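Why does this matter for the project? Reviewers at the last site visit asked to see concrete outputs rather than summary tables. In response, this paragraph embeds two records directly. Each consists of the residue sequence and, immediately after it, the corresponding structure tokens. Nothing has been edited or filtered.
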Amino acid sequence: MLIYNAEDQILGRLCSVVSKNLLRGESIFVVNCEKAALAGNPKYTEQTYLKKIKKGSALHGPHFPKRPDDIFRRTVRGMLPWDRTTGRKAYKNLRVFIGIPEELKGKEFTQVKEANVSKLKTKYITLGDLSIAVGAKKRW
């Protein structure tokens, strides 16, 4: 069982490491997902996600998540072979949390060195800020 802390981590790089470990059969927990960062201009990123959400209809979809933990899970899902049973089984071993739950408070967290935000030279937006801008109800 691996526990990743997404605080000050780049979303795509962290998700790629998580998806590789899921395919190896690991059980993975991700905490503080609302503090993960999306690199790029924040206004452009908000517009892109709003276009994805407003596409289609409420009845027929496509349905795109608004909460930070669901956006994180969807990003990992895009990196897994979803059309195969191995990808679907691996996806079931992923647990994503907003904040740190009680059962994981005393545990040791790992961070991906390559995914640190300090390496970015551009602006970025956190998943929590993005989800609020997209229209999620703040519950965290």
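We now turn to the second protein, recorded in exactly the same manner.
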Amino acid sequence: MSSSPGLIVGVILSGVFTVVGLLARDDADVIVAVALALLAACAVATAVAMALPTPFHALGIDPACGSGPLATAIQDLLSILVYFTIAAAIAG
């Protein structure tokens, strides 16, 4: 089984953000929260984008027509939920 492209992109983005964030600011809690949220959001977005067309196809709906806007909305909502969950866990 190969690694998820979203996970790889998330690791790269969160790593770059962590380095730049530590150079620019002193608030490690915020930097960790945003870096973890970036990592999780990238992985979740890829999982949603890969999983959503299957039910559309099973229902006889063209996956390309319905999954794009719906996938984007779901990914955005999950990204916000993930960020606030991680921020709340770190902030205490």
